[in-house]
Amino acid sequence: TTGPSSDSSPTVESVEDNPDGGCHIYRNGYYESSIAVVEGILEVNIIQMTSIQMTESQAENSLVDFVVTCQGSLPTDVCTVVSDPTCQVSRSVVCYPVVVTDECLLTIRRAFEEPGTYCINITLGDDTSQALASALISVNGGEST
């Protein structure tokens, strides 16, 4: 932008290289644009992790419920990534749409195939933003801490 013109519209001057002749092409003109500012999802917090008690016949997987809150706009999808304790090597990724109508409070259930310590990343997203929360969880044969 080279500055405002007499009608207060910004003037644009662009310079392009002409690949055929090696000379420059100058273009002058005016532009107009509008910008929409959206709030987006500002923050995600895991406020509770609860192990789901299973019967002995169902004990192949340990189930854990994660209660998650967020600030800002309401999410339309959630992704959870379960990784090793360093959060470097992903073991499983699950994404699905969610419907949140009033308050951002979600319960996300994940299955863990074997005891151990895991890093879990929970990402909430909408059309314009994403926010992430991470936690370490220790799963011990149907119990978690």
From TrEMBL:
Report biased composition (Polar residues) as residue ranges.
1-12
Q: Which InterPro entries match?
A: PKAT, PKAT_KLD
Residue ranges occupied by any PKAT KLD domain in the UniProt entry: 69-119
Q: Which GO terms describe its biological process?
A: cell adhesion
Q: Which GO terms describe its cellular component?
A: plasma membrane
Gene Ontology MF terms? integrin binding
Annotated stretches, region: Disordered: 1-20
Write one Pfam family the protein is assigned to. PKAT_KLD
Q: Which PANTHER family match?
A: MELANOCYTE PROTEIN PMEL 17-RELATED, TRANSMEMBRANE GLYCOPROTEIN NMB
State the name under which the record lists this protein.
Answer: QNR71 protein
Identify the species of origin.
Aegithalos caudatus (Long-tailed tit)
